[in-house]
């Protein structure tokens, strides 16, 4: 019995020793990983700043061969479509861009600076491209002048994400309202640096929707991106400018308009046709025609609030409504004064 108890105690002690040893090894590994990631000290960061920026010039394009353009890769992250104004011919969106390029003046060896692999810097500290919203419907401003910070990596890669509310011009056609589809584009480019200096290139073939909030009026059918080159004649010569284009194809959500506009319109049109077959002397034709006309007046007031005001294009619904109303007016014109007195 004593031998059995001694063996059990020995086994338990050995088991505890193994568990304790594994815990020490795990803590040691975690500590090593922690110090490996955060090995850089304050002195390393300060020394890196001094070495990088003591001769850095924000006015010089960051490329070794100055005869070649700097390629700016772009992604557009759409967060919401705030409004699509058919009268003003504008689209207002919320979103941000993800830009990245290589700055050959901002490269370093991480092992010389305590393993430091990236820096977070203000935009006025490094070179940034001029970036304008080319088809802006409000004020033109350089998006790269926003006071946002950017991230620089040890291999010279620079990442930056400016954004906010953007209003662009968009030609809208409401002929098929409310079954219409619209296509709007968002154009980014530079007005001072031509394609020999800067090339804007969409990284993806579509717009990103990681943080998108659905719009109640419009549904996004598809998106596409592309690079647009625009020629401009200057005093010296003709220059070509690079632009990045992000296009959105939208489809109007039509359920509300069908229920509140088209169904009442069709019912009134049927009543209008029924008024033609009612005998004049029956005493009901005038009442039906007058009631239908009053209903048209109420519906017209409602439609005027829903149909977008646009003189460039007119909705088919407008023409259909007035044609049907003219037929209803014709029902009233067929009465003679004597017949109306008899009724």
Keywords:
Neuronal acetylcholine receptor subunit alpha-6 isoform X5; 30% strand; 6 helices; Acetylcholine Binding Protein, Chain: A; 343 residues; alpha+beta; seven-stranded mixed sheet; single chain
Quickly describe the structure:
Helix content is 34%, strand content 30%. With 343 residues, it is of the alpha+beta class. It folds into 2 domains: 40-252, Neurotransmitter-gated ion-channel ligand-binding domain (Acetylcholine Binding Protein, Chain: A); 256-328.
Report the count of strand segments.
11
Q: Which CATH-level-2 architecture of the largest domain?
A: Distorted Sandwich
CATH superfamily of the largest domain: Neurotransmitter-gated ion-channel ligand-binding domain
What proportion of the residues is helical, as a percent range? Answer: 25-40%
Number of helices: 6
Catalogue the unreliable spans: 22-37, 331-343
Instruction: Calculate the mean pLDDT score and round it.
Output: 80
CATH topology of the largest domain: Acetylcholine Binding Protein, Chain: A
- The secondary-structure class comes to alpha+beta
Characterize the biggest β-sheet.
7 strands, mixed
Specify Rg, calculated over alpha carbons: 35 Å
Which CATH class of the largest domain applies here? Mainly Beta
* H-E order: HHEEEEEEEEEEEHHHH
Span between N and C termini? 123 Å
The shape is elongated
| Total tally of structural domains | 2
- Strand residues, percent: 25-35%
Family: Belongs to the ligand-gated ion channel (TC 1.A.9) family.
Main location: membrane
InterPro entries: Neur_chan_lig-bd, Neur_chan_lig-bd_sf, Neur_channel, Neuro-gated_channel_TM_sf, Neuro_actylchol_rec, Neurotransmitter_ion_chnl_CS
Keywords: Ion channel, Ion transport, Membrane, Receptor, Signal, Transmembrane, Transmembrane helix, Transport
